[in-house]
Design a protein that fits this description.
The chain has about 270 residues and is an alpha+beta fold. It has 6 helices and 13 strands. It has 2 domains: about 90 residues, Pseudouridine synthase (2-Layer Sandwich); about 130 residues, Pseudouridine synthase, CATH 3.30.2350. Strands 1, 2, 3, 4, 7, 10, 11, 12 and 13 form a 9-stranded mixed beta sheet that branches.
């Protein structure tokens, strides 16, 4: 447990929290900030994170408390490592399970051998277009806000969702890609309908769809969207793809062995 005096930590505190499934990064920050302010007796203690994780992702979320918030940008700039479960044979507007499948795709050219043959072409510096369902800013508006509006309008017209050319590409670097496993089926998670509070994040029902599944280990630079990589891998195989799971296993010099559950992090601030 930490002492009650924040001045005992002149460099601040960095907590490598294992972000819970269906929690947003902001949910975690709010929870820890409340506990930290109470623990240290400060009404306006700075608490932030070094790199957002999607709601349906888990793994390392670096929570910075006090003076450590000044290091957030430096921590965020470090290489990252992920375990990504990529599903081939369908697409979703968000490129993950937060939105329902909107298109099924051919699987004739999807195989372990074909995937192994295209992975090397995604290693190195490259231009990547982020998902429209993301926190990117477009003319001062979050991209996901524009995406939600376009999806509502397309649904009202009975048309499929088309993100268009709203986002510009960004330079990223993928240092390494390793195929850990490949399966001709996907063990889909149980669907969940959104509710209030932290339960507002949906998990789409993809049971019954004919999908292929690959578990890929990814080492990459800041700014790399793994959902966009899944999209691009699907297109490279003449099919479609989305993320079935995502876990960040390394960030800012921290790895899985360093992670604290949210409950453990809160106990340190008890």
């Amino acid at each position: 447990m930490f002492s009650k005096d924040i001045s005992d930590y002149p460099d601040g505190i960095v907590l490598p929290v294992d972000k819970p499934y269906r929690w947003t990064s902001a949910d975690v920050i709010r929870k820890i900030k409340w506990a930290a302010c109470r623990h240290f007796g400060k009404k306006n203690l700075k608490v932030g994170h070094a790199g957002t994780l999607d709601p349906l992702a888990t793994g390392i979320l670096l929570v910075c408390i006090g003076p450590a918030t000044r290091k957030a940008e430096q921590l965020q700039a470090s290489p990252k490592e992920y375990l990504a479960g990529v599903c081939f044979g369908a697409t979703t507007p968000s490129y993950d399970l937060e939105k329902d499948i909107d298109r099924t795709c051919p699987l004739e050219d999807v195989s372990k051998e074909r995937l192994l043959s295209v992975l090397p072409s995604f290693v190195g510096e490259q231009e990547q277009i982020a998902p429209l369902f993301s926190a990117k800013s477009v003319d001062g508006v979050r991209a996901y806000e524009t995406a939600r509006r376009l999806l509502r309008e397309a649904s009202a017209r009975g048309e499929s969702f088309d993100p268009g050319d709203i986002l510009q590409s960004s330079l990223i670097n993928i240092y390494d890609l390793q195929l850990l496993s490949y399966s001709n089926s996907f063990d889909a998670p149980e669907p969940v309908e959104p509710t209030e509070g932290r339960g507002r994040i949906k998990v789409a029902d993809v049971k019954g769809y004919d999908l292929r599944h690959a578990l890929i280990k990814i080492s990459c630079s800041k700014g790399t969207y793994i959902r966009a990589l899944a999209r691009d891998l699907g297109e490279a195989l003449g099919s479609g793809a989305f993320l079935g799971s995502l876990r960040r296993t390394r960030n800012g010099g921290y790895c899985e062995a360093d992670m604290l559950s949210l409950d453990s992090a809160l106990e340190l601030l008890g």
